[in-house]
Amino acid sequence: MKTMTCKQLHGPCDALIHGETAEEMMRNSQEHGMEMSGKGDAEHIRIMEEMRQHANDPEAVREFMDTFQKDFAAQPEDK
Length: 79
Prior knowledge:
The protein has 79 residues and is mainly α.
């Protein structure tokens, strides 16, 4: 299990996000963003809108995923 903050995952807060795999971490990060957006958190809404805009740009998505995979791999396992 690894833990990263929302900020490490390009979000606006220090909430802890956990995942066994990069895919699980990404899902949990998205769930957190959706939860916070649903609560009306303006910063999470803004970040999620920016991500949606970049979702149509394959190069931006590839760059984001490459960086995320490297960041996840470098993150130490929880103790």
